[in-house]
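Researcher: Let's do a round of design. I'm pasting the structure tokens now; please hold your answer until I've finished.
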């Protein structure tokens, strides 16, 4: 049958993930830095995802299987469950020990023997661990009352005073809306914000267009979590 289906111009797409957030059926995903249509069966052809900042999405009428809402939502639920299970597994005894939540301000981690670090130049100056949003446990104790800093991956390299100016008093989590799956990031941040444990949210992003996905991620997560946090957004200009 002929019907409207989304079409993506890869040359224009910068992988910001806005379309993924707009697609309620879960028909889209950011893969290898580009938006992709997972399956024509999952696309309802209504164009809710056309609000693309780069104009990379359009509707085209072509031969395609009939939209199957039940299959689309079931596949979306399976992906979310799989992502959630993988995240939880990393925080169990049988998961990766490097992803275990740690408050590095705890006295047990302060004044560690010199033998535990290769040199003074490699001494860690972080308040908490892990810092990857995808690895963070929503139930980590250090999130209670935290002033959360959601920062772009690039910020640590672009801002030489990031540790002095941005980390004191904040719990950092980093993400890249272009190179990581937007749906996974949204689910994790929503879970972290749900329950009112976070006191404040600050976004620190780069001025490149794709990094605007961090702002959208923060707003969508707050909406999904049903919370009204003080939200600040700061842009590091390139």
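Researcher: That's everything. Go ahead.
Model: Designed sequence:
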């Amino acid at each position: 049958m002929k019907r409207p289906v989304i079409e993506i111009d890869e040359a224009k797409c910068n992988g910001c993930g806005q379309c993924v957030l707009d697609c309620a059926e879960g028909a889209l995903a950011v893969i290898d830095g580009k938006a992709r249509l997972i399956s024509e069966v999952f696309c309802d052809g209504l164009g809710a995802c056309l609000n693309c900042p780069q104009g990379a999405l359009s509707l085209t009428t072509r031969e395609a299987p009939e939209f199957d809402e039940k299959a689309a939502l079931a596949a979306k639920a399976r992906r979310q469950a799989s992502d959630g299970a993988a995240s939880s597994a990393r925080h169990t005894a049988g998961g990766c020990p490097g992803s275990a939540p740690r408050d590095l301000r705890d006295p047990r981690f302060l004044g560690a023997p010199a033998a535990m670090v290769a040199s003074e130049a490699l001494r860690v100056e972080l308040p908490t661990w892990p810092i990857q949003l995808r690895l963070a446990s929503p139930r980590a104790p250090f999130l209670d009352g935290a002033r959360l800093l959601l920062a772009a991956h690039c910020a640590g390299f672009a801002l030489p005073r990031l540790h002095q100016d941005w980390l004191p008093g904040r719990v950092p989590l980093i993400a890249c809306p272009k190179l990581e799956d937007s749906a996974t990031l949204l689910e994790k941040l929503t879970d972290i914000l749900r329950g009112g444990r976070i006191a404040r949210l600050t976004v620190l992003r780069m001025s490149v267009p794709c990094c605007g996905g961090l702002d959208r991620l923060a707003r969508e997560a707050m909406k999904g979590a049903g919370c009204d946090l003080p939200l600040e957004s700061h842009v590091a200009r390139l």
